[in-house]
Design a protein that fits this description.
heterodimer; A: mainly alpha; MetI-like fold; 2 domains; 13 helices; about 0% strand; B: alpha/beta; Rossmann fold; 8-stranded mixed sheet; 5-stranded antiparallel sheet; globular
Amino acid sequence: MGKIYIVKRILYTVFVFAVVVTLCFFIPRIGVDDPCSRYYPAQGNMSDAQYEVIKELTREQYGLDGTTWSQFCRYISNLCKGDLGTSYQSGSPKVIDLIFARLPWTLVLSVSSMLISLFFGMLIGAFCAWKRGGWQDRALMNASTITTALPAFFLALLLAFFLGFQWEIFPAYTDQNMVSSFRWNAKSVLNVAYNAALPVISSVIGGIISYAQSTRNSVIAVSNENFIITAKAKGVSNTAVIYKHTLRNAMLPIATSLGMSISGLIGGSVVIEQIFNWNGVGTLFLEANNTNDYPLMMGIMIFLSAFALVANLVTDLCYSLLDPRVTLGEKR
Amino acid sequence: MSERVLDIRNLKVVFPNELGIIRAVEGIDLEIEKGKCVALVGESGCGKSVTSLASMKLLGNSGAIVRADKMELCGTDIRELSDKDMQDFRGKRISMIFQDALSALNPVMTIGKQLDEIFIRHFNVSKKEAKEHSIEALKLVGVPDPAVRYKAYPHELSGGMRQRVLIAMAFACNPDLIIADEPTTALDVTIQAQVLDLLSDLQKSHHKALLLITHDFSVVVHMADEICVMYSGKIVEKAPAKELFREPLHPYTKGLIGSVAKMEDKKGKFIQIPDSLPNPMNKPSGCYFHPRCACATEKCKTYMPPLRTLENGRQVRCWIQEEAHEP
């Protein structure tokens, strides 16, 4: 049964991906009769025949020749070969190369934010669950109200203003030479950390609080369970009860929210990247948007959704390892 | 030679909260001798479970205040024992069987690992030896294929099997006292009988003291040597099991026994006790049972009757019995 479920789940993921690709392909084409006349509006001193030739050349160059359907088929067959097309940027770089050039920089931000949020969130959450009802617990509750109401970009702007411009502790704008001058040495790594400080802090504050809140809630919920009393009645020491029984069970909801945040690792920080001018995938997407670079936009969207889908698939399959009650698709 | 395994005098448990004080247990005495089975019977919410948790000192962080004149477990005063010392007692000298076996077992741990924990904790054995002990313990309670079941998770077992696992845990370290808190409530009637037989056999063959907590008189008929009937935090009647069934003295006991279906009953009707337990925050004056009692008098409404010992050693808390036996 388990294997059948996994195959089904993979097929479903492929289906969703196909839907995403189709939408990404057709939505930009809605309402655009002829993209070429948009790129090259007719010039006054040009005959119609000349203009047609120019448009035809443009179509060929950008892969817009033939019917929409044949374009779609060509796009899909290229996609199957791992080719996301060619960007309209000068020099006609491959979309996939542009994405992979930016990807590590986005991951630097998002992975470090996620790990920091998870670590401190769980630490604080477990502590607050232990001090249930104390001032630490109430402080966490209030903090979570504030951070839920306060969007991360607003926090980012405040941090950029105070820590960046007023007190000049961290750079409010990423050093534009950081990427080009990066070498694997301590100085470069420190420079990256220094530049990443503000973006990471602004996304980590909300993350820590939300992980802390869910850890606290699930630890409290689990410690009221009957099996905790059973464990105590067996004479198991308090530390063993906490580590072997409470935390293991309290981890389950946290694993769920971790899985969801993994799927948002690449696409989740578009706004933060933009505020701090961080050269990541998010900024690339906005650039593509502003310059009507359709292949690049489509490529990024497809890449993001593929990543999210794979992350979801992996989390789902891993969940049954954490919780034996979750059987892979077995009906009971 | 009789040896008292559990000796509790005047146990009181209260739960203070914002709205008032919940008096869960109001001064009960309980003693159990080695090899005996004592049943604590009463409706849900009368303080049975709190009594059992208090005697294992497991009410630690529930906000309960526990007071007793005497609380001795196997001759050791446990009132002043620290939680760390108490951990050595729990599982080894006193153990507990809980009612809902599914929620009483850790869902993400195999039952084998949960059994191992006891042996590793109390016998200081290696994991491998613990596994042997655990499989032995599962065999003892009649779990088929114990070596296979050892690797099972709680949700993979049937209700009866889960309850057997809990019993295996309780008997694992051969404790002196076993508290069974409604061990069969969550089970089918046929499985109930099997589990009760198992519990009774193990208790008799190992010569253990058993405190059986239940709301169901039919469960205790064949198992208990002595029965304590509890009502709203107080013991209202205490008698040897057979005598209690032959001649219940307290009106509440009469009601409880009357509400059990009997084969020879021709009337085709159950006797019901009207109404339900009083709110533990706002108990009635006088005898707590008087609002539901058919024979309540004016005296019952104002004064709480004492728990009186009769000539034959039985104890009952009722003004009517008091007057009947007055010289």
